[in-house]
């Protein structure tokens, strides 16, 4: 069972050492455009924490094996939002369907990797580090930030929003990450004296954590200045509907995505935004839980995409979802599903070339006694987004090359 | 207080005197030794410098141990601890008898329980058992939401507090039947026909063995062994009674009816419902048999990976952020030989030379709860529990609401731009709430061992009031470390 923001840094220190050190801000960090940022494109990463059940998200409704495997929690064929004669979306995803019909959603089927793991924490590690062998110690987005998008350490290029700790995929040596729960709370409280004293306490801290501490408060200090007038420059154009509690997930995705829109609209240097919704570890009562969570994703993502479009920035933003694994084909006795393997992911935005990519894995020819066989390596998605969307070099991040998917419109 | 008294001298701050420890009159120990040791703060690469360890002195070791084995201390408590030989101090701490949580007004409201727990952490004389209660909560995790409107958070909190008197075998058996755990990891509806894998997997992966020490088949077979565990309400004599019905009642009436039963001595209890339990043969971790939960746990505890897993987890919390294999093995061997005696485990950690080696000094980051409670204890002001409850989220620690079943981050995992702002802002809120303060210079010596970096010294010395000086101390990097 996993709750709230599933999959922040989980305290896994399998390798133990390696304290991640952010850079010192050597150059001007407030420049609206930065020489090594290649373009204005922004990637929003939406993590569905806990292992989202792909089979009840993109439903193979015409497959009798689906009905057989999911006698109580199966989505009835006559309720799905059909994409074709074989598959359809969960009926709680009308907003995603609308975007799909507009050609702005790529659904990639059967995403996974060889020899799947069934542990949350290993699965997370693999996706976060883009490494099924679990040897890499730096997050793939962190490497991308430090090496290419943000070698100057601009504090707002990589952001984790609506959260309190740095997601592991953004952690890397020399990657600067702003972790912002909300803009109003992202201040030094207690008056002018404290605004001077707090950063002054963290300039040359000795010891093994010195650079880490100083980097954290330094990042905050610069971010606070940059965000000072943000709220006067952004007004949401749509209604985001936060839900304080969705089946054990307290994370407010709608609020996080509204903050994401605010960051993108007001901060030209933003390149990567990470948001998360947890609660997808549906061992029990999946029918009610997953539907509520997906409905929440649908409304929050739809509002976000509309808001971005209304601010004239639809051409700048692509959102991708991921989850550490899909779930077992056959439901368990508690109206739930246990940990599984491959699953679909969504890539959403006006620059996206819509459609269904990859293939629905067989529900009967399974791996490891009842789990879906992947047919698209998750690193293919990363590679495509790094090269075709962020226009950066994937090889130095992924360490190898993977087949790309034609999911980004070419200009 | 005169300003001359308040200033930390350059000598105090930098520890220029060779050897650094015994010299300055009136100060227990001193100061920061920067790499290169020139004493020139402006030119030293601060981040490259190391803290000058005071762990060669008995007072330094006592303060170090208290920061890790307890939730902090007042000056008087440190003086008492420093007067004891170190092994005696360790024994005194690990032998402390836990004090129960004071009466909680509404046991069905987790925030009330957590507020009471923060208050207890700040005030109980039995500091070590309380710190261990938090340790077990971080390892054997849970989520208040699963308690619904039942007093299960309070019950689990009491179980973990009592664990220090026992051994890990007793604890993990009790946890398997703990009503909140039963709900948290979905044992409640796990049946012989359809066993739920959640508890079986997380028990082995996170609580006892670590990944790589079991197979997916073991997860499935373990789920069968743990099937059929159910929660019942029992009266003071252990006789099963019917809980009040929430359905068709008002919440207030339900809570009242429940509280009446609890007040009469009723409690929730996990039991093995034989009719729901899979009594068939299983092969689990190489052992074949009908295997009920206790037998499955015995098999887990007999695995060579179990003691090292617990030892490593405890070492990262209490000793060093990256324990070596030999350190883990040394502590694990003593733990295993004692048949998982928890006092033996902790004594082995606190008395290991790695614990008081110079590089152990300030090698761990205080978690948010530790930081907040240490603040209350340093100020001698235990009335900030409500502020602690409110402030934890932004630092990424809400008790009974962890990010994942793996618990909270540790050490460097706590550090982010937002979390560090939340820490300095907590200090600001605390200062604003206090009418008066203990002597801040004394506190630099008792709380920070007199070992402060140039930034903290500069801000402290520039402060114009005791409140500002305490802000510098509480918000400082030094106070975030242990």
In short:
The complex is a heterodimer of chains A (411) and B (482). Chain A has helices at 64-69, 94-101, 120-129, 140-149, 192-200, 210-226, 230-233, 253-266, 286-310, 378-389, 395-398; strands at residues 42-48, 58-59, 81-82, 88-89, 105-112, 158-161, 178-180, 272-277, 317-322, 343-348, 355-357, 376-377.
Q: What helical percentage do the residues of chain B reach?
A: 40-55%
The tally of helices of chain A reads 11
CA radius of gyration of chain A: 21 Å
Strand order of the largest sheet of chain B: 2-1-3
Beta fraction of chain B: under 5%
| CATH fold category name of chain A | Alkaline Phosphatase, subunit A
How many domains, in number, for the residues of chain A?
Answer: 1
**Number of distinct beta strands of chain B:** 5
Biggest sheet architecture of chain A: 9 strands, mixed
CATH class of chain A: Alpha Beta
Uncertain segments of chain B are 1-6, 10-47
Envelope shape of chain B: globular
Number of strands of chain A: 12
| Largest interface, C-beta closer than 8 angstroms, per-chain residues | A-B, 79 and 88 residues
């Amino acid at each position: 069972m996993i709750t709230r923001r599933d999959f922040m840094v989980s305290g896994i220190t399998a390798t133990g050492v390696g304290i991640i050190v952010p850079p010192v801000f050597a150059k001007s960090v407030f420049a609206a455009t930065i020489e090594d940022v290649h373009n204005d494109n922004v990637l929003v990463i939406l993590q569905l924490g806990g292992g989202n059940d792909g089979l009840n998200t993109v439903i193979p409704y015409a497959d009798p094996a689906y009905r057989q495997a999911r006698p109580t929690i199966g989505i009835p064929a006559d309720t799905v939002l059909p994409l074709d004669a074989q598959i359809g979306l969960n009926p709680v995803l009308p907003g995603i369907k609308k975007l799909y019909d507009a050609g702005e959603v790529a659904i990639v089927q059967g995403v996974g990797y060889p020899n799947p793991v069934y542990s949350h924490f290993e699965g997370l590690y693999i996706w976060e580090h883009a490494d099924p062998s679990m040897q890499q110690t730096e997050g793939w987005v962190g490497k991308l930030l430090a090496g290419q998008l943000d070698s100057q350490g601009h504090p707002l290029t990589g952001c984790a929003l609506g959260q309190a700790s740095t997601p592991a995929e953004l952690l890397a040596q020399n990657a600067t990450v702003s972790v912002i729960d909300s803009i109003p709370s992202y201040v030094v409280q207690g008056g002018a004296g404290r605004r001077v004293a707090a950063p002054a306490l963290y300039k040359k801290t000795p010891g093994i954590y010195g650079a880490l501490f100083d980097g954290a408060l330094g990042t905050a200090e610069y971010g606070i200045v940059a965000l000072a007038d943000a709220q006067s420059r952004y007004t949401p154009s749509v209604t985001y509907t936060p839900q304080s509690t969705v089946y054990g997930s307290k994370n407010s995705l709608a609020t996080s995505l509204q903050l994401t829109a605010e960051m993108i609209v007001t901060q030209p240097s933003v390149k990567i935004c990470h948001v998360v919704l947890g609660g997808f570890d549906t061992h029990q009562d999946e029918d009610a839980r997953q539907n509520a969570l997906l409905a929440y994703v649908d409304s929050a993502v739809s509002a976000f995409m509309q808001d971005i479009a209304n601010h004239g920035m639809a051409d700048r933003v692509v959102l991708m979802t991921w989850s550490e694994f899909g779930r077992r084909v056959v439901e368990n006795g508690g109206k739930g599903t246990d940990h599984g393997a491959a699953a679909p992911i969504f890539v959403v935005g006006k620059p996206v070339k819509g459609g269904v990519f990859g293939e629905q894995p067989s529900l009967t020819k399974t791996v490891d006694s009842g789990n879906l066989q992947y047919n698209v390596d998750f690193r293919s998605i990363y590679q495509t987004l790094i090269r075709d969307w962020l226009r950066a070099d994937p090889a130095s991040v992924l360490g190898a090359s993977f087949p790309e998917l034609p999911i980004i419109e070419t200009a | 207080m005169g300003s001359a008294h308040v200033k930390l001298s350059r000598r105090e701050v930098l520890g220029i005197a060779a050897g650094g420890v015994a010299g300055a009159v009136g100060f227990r120990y001193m100061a920061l030794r920067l790499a290169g040791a020139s004493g020139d703060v402006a030119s030293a690469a601060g981040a490259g410098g190391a803290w000058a360890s005071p762990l060669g002195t008995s007072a330094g070791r006592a303060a170090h141990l208290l920061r890790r084995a307890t939730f902090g201390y007042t000056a008087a408590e440190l003086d008492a601890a420093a007067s004891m030989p170190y092994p005696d101090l360790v024994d005194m701490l690990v032998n402390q008898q836990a004090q129960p949580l004071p009466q909680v007004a509404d046991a069905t409201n987790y925030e009330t329980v957590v507020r009471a727990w923060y208050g207890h952490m700040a005030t109980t004389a039995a500091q070590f058992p309380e710190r261990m209660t938090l340790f077990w909560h971080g390892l054997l995790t849970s989520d208040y939401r699963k308690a619904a409107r039942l007093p299960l958070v309070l019950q689990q909190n009491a179980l973990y507090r009592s664990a220090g008197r026992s051994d890990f075998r007793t604890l993990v058996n009790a946890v398997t039947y703990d009503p909140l755990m039963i709900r948290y990891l979905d044992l409640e509806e796990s049946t012989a026909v359809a066993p739920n894998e959640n508890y079986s997997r997380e028990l082995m992966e996170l609580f006892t063995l670590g990944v790589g020490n079991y197979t997916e088949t073991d997860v499935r077979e373990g789920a069968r062994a743990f099937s059929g565990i159910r929660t019942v309400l029992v009266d003071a004599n252990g006789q099963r009674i019917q809980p009040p019905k929430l359905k068709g009642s008002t919440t207030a009436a339900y809570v009242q009816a429940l509280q009446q039963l609890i007040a009469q001595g009723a409690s929730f209890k996990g039991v093995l419902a034989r009719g729901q339990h899979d009594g068939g043969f299983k092969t689990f971790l190489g052992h074949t048999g009908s295997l009920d939960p206790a037998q499955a746990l015995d098999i887990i505890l007999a695995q060579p990976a179990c003691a090292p897993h617990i030892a490593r987890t405890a070492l990262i919390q209490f000793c060093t952020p990256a324990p070596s294999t030999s350190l883990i093995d040394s502590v694990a061997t003593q733990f295993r030989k004692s048949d998982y005696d928890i006092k033996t485990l902790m004594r082995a950690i606190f008395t290991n030379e790695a614990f008081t080696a110079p590089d152990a000094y300030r090698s761990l980051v205080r978690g948010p709860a530790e930081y907040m409670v240490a603040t209350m204890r340093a100020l001698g002001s235990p009335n900030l529990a409500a502020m602690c409850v409110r402030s934890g989220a932004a630092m990424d620690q809400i008790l009974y609401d962890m990010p994942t079943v793996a618990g909270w981050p540790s050490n460097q995992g706590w550090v982010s731009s937002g979390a560090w702002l939340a820490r300095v802002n907590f200090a600001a809120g605390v200062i604003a709430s206090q009418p008066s303060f203990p002597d801040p210079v004394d506190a630099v010596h008792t709380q920070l061992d007199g070992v402060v970096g140039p930034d903290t010294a500069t801000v402290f010395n520039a402060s114009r009031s005791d409140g500002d000086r305490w802000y510098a101390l509480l918000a400082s990097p030094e106070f975030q470390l242990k």
